[in-house]
Write a structure and sequence with these properties.
With 340 residues, the chain is of the alpha/beta class. Helix content is 52%, strand content 14%. α5 packs parallel to α7. The chain binds adenine and zinc ion.
Length: 340
Amino acid sequence: MNSSLYQKLLKLPKVELHNHLEGGSMYPDLALKFAKRNGITLPFRDETSAKDFYSFTSLDQFIDILRTTVSTLNTAEDYADAAERQGVEAAKQNILYHELFVTYGLVSRRGVAWEAIVEGLEEGIKRNREKHGVHTAFICDLDRTLPEPTALEHVKLAERDREKAGIIGIGLDCQERGYPAIRLKSSFDYAKSTGFRLTAHAGEDGGPASVWDALRCGVERIEHGVQSYEDPTLMKHLAEHQILLTVCPISNIQLKVFPNMQNHSIPKLVEAGIPICVNSDDPPMFDCQLMDEIIAIEETFGFGEDKLVDMLRNAIKFSFMDTQLKETFLQNFEATLSEN
Ligand code: ADE
Ligand code: ZN
């Protein structure tokens, strides 16, 4: 990507919709700090051995590694530090608003108290706003391997503490194959009845059927959804209903969803008129930041400025921000765009 386009995109006030609080903060230095203060041993001891450990063959194997690494997260302070690290990295790229997934199911089985998480999220929001100028909102993802009654309990906890912890929606993540979203439909129905916004990881490695399942649960956007291209009827549906896919290309390559960037479905999705935006998923585990994703897309597909800007604008348009904040963000985005 030429440097003037890079600088222009860097300068735009950006929004990121698909990034995980837990996996997205597991920078080796931070994970090792959490491990030390909680008396946990990690299978790596520095940057180099962490790089070897962060080497993936599939989504399922990635989630196993994620569960090991995330065992270092235990206290309110850990959660606040994790959220703040995300704020620091966002600010460097001029990402001024992000929606971070928090998956209680990753730690609840180990007995981490929900109250500690809430305290950490509240502190993280405050630090990011005051110290880094970043607006952080949280989406509570249900670990899709949970039994339905536990998933519903997690939605109710999120509902109870939604104001304090800045929780705006309910999502779904972890192992996709073998765990169709429809299993947890009653949790989604309940979440919707309380006014939560809804989303789900789907079509990352579960194919188009998994996306249909998520849509039947009432989600408003799809996280990943990159395998939708395998089903023309689904492609038509996503385009007709303007359902956003939050695409995370480098994650997809690392998890072997596609063999390489050239084979990624992005051009097919764009060509079909489906709105997409670009995201980094779990930056330290995939060794990428949002700006790297944009460079990778440009260098592989040569989309050019207008299409890249469309993707960045989509992130604002399809975010779960309230109407007034969204209006302000869109105005700032267009004003900065016309400045240079
Ligand atoms: N949790 C963190 N990253 C994830 C991904 N890419 N898919 C599903 N669950 C996740
Ligand atoms: Zn994800």
